[in-house]
Each structure stands twice: as C-alpha cells, then as structure tokens.
Amino acid sequence: MPPLKIENFIKNSVLELSAYKVNEVESDEVLKLDANESNYTLGKDIKKRYADFIKDTLINLYPDSGSKNLIRLLEKFYDTAVENFIFGNGSDELISIILLSLKKDVAVKIPSPSFSMYDIIARYNDLKTELIKLDEKYFDLPENINADKDKNSKKIFFFSYPNNPTGNHFNRDIIKSLLENKNNIVVVDEAYIFFSNKESFIKYINKYDNLIVLRTFSKIGLAGLRFGMLFSGDKLINEFKKIKLPYNINSLTLSSIEFFLNNFGEFDKNIKKTIEQREKLYSVLNKFDYIYVYPSDANFLLIKLKDKKLKNKFDKFLKDNNIIIRSFTGDMKLFYRITVGTPAENKKLADYFKNFKKDFTNML
Fold it and tell me: How many CA atoms lie within 13 A of 303 on its CB side?
C-alpha cells in the first residue's frame, strides 16, 4: 500500500506551520519563569473550602454555563450584562472564534513583537497577517498606524494590553482612533491588566460596536482552569455565539470560577505581591550592566543582552543552571522574558545573574 499523501488532505496553511512548543520541566530543581503563570499557591484553608465547594459538582451532566449564580457574579465583577460576553476555553479559543468568523479579505494586523497565537491562529485560518513593527525604544504603536492607501480595506487589529512580551500599554488615543474607523475591528486583549493601573476597555463596548475585549484569570493563579471571556457589543457577539461550541467550558471550571469570584480577595493579595516583586526584581536586574531591563505593567519583565557576543554563553548558562525563561528568535534573539516569581525565586534568579556577570562579562 502506498504511503498516505498528507498534502492531499491537510491545507497548506497548516502544513507550513510549526507546532507550538511548551518547555518541559525535566527536574525538580528547575527555576521555571517562562509562562507568565502565578507562582503563588493558595493557602490550606481556602484549598479545603474549595474542595468542599466543588465536591458536589455534577460531572455526569453537561456543564451549565448559564448558572445564575456564576452569571450574577461575573456581571457584577465586570459591570457588564450577560448579553455582552461569552466564555472560552482560555483566550486561545476565543481568538480562534474571532478569526474563524472572518472573511478571507480581512487583513489581520498584529504588533511585532506581540502574543504569537494571534499570528498562528490567523494563518491556519488562511487569513493574511500584517505585522506592525514596534520601535524598540518604547515599543509603542506608530502614529500613522491607520494610514492606508485603500480607505475601504477591512482590517482587524489585535492589541495585547499590556503587551506581551514588552510589558507596556499601547497609546489609548491611537487605539480609539482605530475604533473610529468602521472598516476596522479592534481586539484589546487584557490578559495582564490586573497588574496595571490602566482602565479597562470593557466600558467602551457599547460605544464602539467594532470593539472586542478579551479577559482571563490565567495570569493571577487560575491558568490550569482554562477560562477566558470575550466582551463585545450586540452585533459582533451575536455572530460569535453562532460558532462557539456548546459546552466548551467543563463543569469543574465553571464551579471553580464561581468559588474564586466569591473569594477574589485571596487573588488580590497575590496580585499586589506580584506587583511589589516586579518592582524589586526590576531594580535588582537593572544593576547588571550586561542587560537592559524594560519597565513593565504586567507580571513579567523583558530584558535584552547589550552585547550579541554574550548570546551563546548566556543560553548555555541558563541551560546549565536549569533556568527556564522565554527566549526569542530573529530580531528578538537578544531578548528574554522573565515571569515575576515569588521572593525566593526572584532572589535565586538574581543570584544566578550575578554569577553570570562575574564569570562571563569580564571575558569580553
């Protein structure tokens, strides 16, 4: 029997992609600061109350995403009516729903650097992606972002706010100017907004019918639950509801979100701890003259090696010491993103970086 010709079945946009790789932890001694999770675990008391709360969740029945208690809590938490939001199995599913709904002539505009899944999901949906190059000094959007020879061209913009991996907020006035153009749809992904003092765009969904806002609890301690939310005005949300899969959020996650909304104070404490540790880690790392550290409004810091001759030595140093931080390729090959950890983890990282400075930078 001849071998299967996969190209006869799988579309080119998928064949051309590389699978997204997640760093695997191979040792208990690994310092894992690459995924922007919260490294704070909950206390024994709240864990016990959580276990008591979810033990009666009915897993023999399909999940009830219309639970009155859950909906009431989310409406109050986000000050938004249930008619204007849907749930997703993490923000990735919601990004997929948005892009799956689009016509093929809609251009997908994505800042570079930014969250890689915008581009990956767009490409396997056979959509044309256009990168908006960010200036390395401030990583803000260009003023002429809305300039286009074809005034009638249809575009969708994805903005991580604060941006991943740069940690900064884009200029709100520029985003609003894009919303004023009805040939644009603008997606504001607020995955990291809990760690900043900026106002959410959710309040504008009834003002701009071309605005979509994404939110998640993953970055504050619930990454394992895979729960995201999409907010938008009636026109867009009604279309997304048509293609959202039924029962896409499992019963245990729905029960868990209800419990944690009622106990959000525990997460608020950890958010404040993370912000405090971010500022401390920034101050410590900023003292090392072989890296540049960018200010951040998220739960991570972006750093850049100042000398490209250090690249191979630094990568080997990270591997030899079981340090996992996010690395990049291409124009970003000298950059690394570091998740803000616990005080002990941050001190350990700073000590390692001090050793690297001592061992290698004097060799240049």
Answer: 28
